């Protein structure tokens, strides 16, 4: 579990992070969204002490991070940033190996880990292991950046816009991969993003920041249904809220028996995507792979049920 208590950081007399407290239970993903300059990156960097707080404490599993030598702390915490932050003169393999080498892992274990991570991120090890960062596309470099952050299996992973340079398709894929990896390893993740969709999709809880303060911190469904203020509602995109809520559930939950014409959809398809498919193809119902159908009526009923009173 990670606990931030009363964290404050001031620059030029302005508190850019202002008395922020936040608890993230172990094995959860907390997403952090907010206006530009609201202090998200500063808050994240106070956790691994790349920025020292002026006040407040960070506890990781009950241990005050000030009592841990900074280099030990940074080795234990994965950190993936926008851009990728790769060392330009090191191969992909050497980049991924950075922390395992510092920790003194045997070479065979490091090599196996590099191949495992490259495969996980759909980068063929034989092709990519010896490439230099400038020989990668932006999206490939970002995936290597995330692989490097995960290399030593950190319990805590801090991510600052890690998927910013990915196109929509690879981005969705990278998000799914991150979720799978996180579930497998039980990693606790704090992820800063500008993408509300990403925050809703990935966050067990999401925090909304403005001017150094957290305005709301709750399950995405709760934030969408009950934004704490008109400002939060605007941030979430007032007109988009209904669709974002629909993207939190899959058709498996509202499937009924029956048959319907046309191509079948996957049971994990979100209600939002199913609605789009109904509208786009002009169908009143869609067959689901493996049996059952989802109807437009059920989609509308589900949307109405989720709407705030
Ligand atoms: N080293 C610094 N010196 C002075 N001011 C700083 C420093 N680092 C950050 N700031 C200021 O602190 C505020 C918060 O910055 P921060 O990068 O944490 O915001 P952010 O929410 O991550 O922004 P964005 O979404 O635009 O990336 C900004 O006004 C920024 O200009």
TrEMBL record:
PANTHER family: GLYCINE BETAINE UPTAKE SYSTEM ATP-BINDING PROTEIN YEHX (PTHR43117:SF5), OSMOPROTECTANT IMPORT ATP-BINDING PROTEIN OSMV (PTHR43117)
Protein name: ABC transporter ATP-binding protein
Keyword vocabulary terms for this entry: ATP-binding, Nucleotide-binding, Transport
Gene Ontology MF, one: ATP binding
Family per similarity comment: Belongs to the ABC transporter superfamily.
Annotated ABC transporter domain residues: 2-236
PROSITE patterns named in the record: ABC_TRANSPORTER_1, ABC_TRANSPORTER_2
InterPro entries: AAA+_ATPase, ABC_transporter-like_ATP-bd, ABC_transporter-like_CS, P-loop_NTPase
Organism encoding this protein: Paracoccus broussonetiae subsp. drimophilus
